[in-house]
Amino acid sequence: MAEEIQFLDEELNEICVEIRKGVDELAGGRFKGDARAEKIAHINKRLTRAKQVLHSYKVELRELSPEDLPQFNQKSKEYNNLISKLSNDFSAAKQAGDREELVGGRSTTEIDPDKMTAKEIIDTAKKVQDDSKASTMRSLQKVEQAEAIGKDTAATLKQQTEQLKSIHAEVEEVESNIKRGAKLARSFLKSMATDKLVIVLICLIVLAIVGIIAYQAAMGQGPLANFTSGV
Questions:
Q1: Locate the T-SNARE coiled-coil homology domain: which residues (predicted)?
Q2: What pTM, to 2 d.p., does this model score?
């Protein structure tokens, strides 16, 4: 078990280093527009993965020997604090970037309408409006993509449902054929039993007749005895 938790320890360390680098790049304003959105999505995924690995890490702690437990238990607490800090730093960097994009690259302390000319105010308002339109268009595109994915998923589910119905109908038909076959088999066996009984009865009758004739012949009675005497 120590080998398994050691592997998780190495993976957690690599993920945390990667997240720290991404958060620092995001805070430094290296990414804009779609590139920034992709970076944010990637960091989100890595944070989720880090939490999943940490959960597995804590589960593995239960299997450790008393000698190994203190060391890895301490590391578990350190990773928990580190992931929380990375998550907070990521949120702060994201919010700061959102504000910066909203005002067109200016910090909020630089925006003072009393110190701006009419043209600067108009340009800033136009920039905010354009950014809002671009953001709205991106949101609409994402909605359309989600709608398309939803339609494709619904079509796939419908197709799979139809396939399941077809399979269910075929299974019912097979079961019906099996029941019908079993019924025919029972009927055939009953018929064979009846035929055997008839054959046995006929054999018994024939044997009885032969026995009677033989008996009469032996006792000198009956037609066979008369025929034998005449000869």
A1: 126-188
A2: 0.45
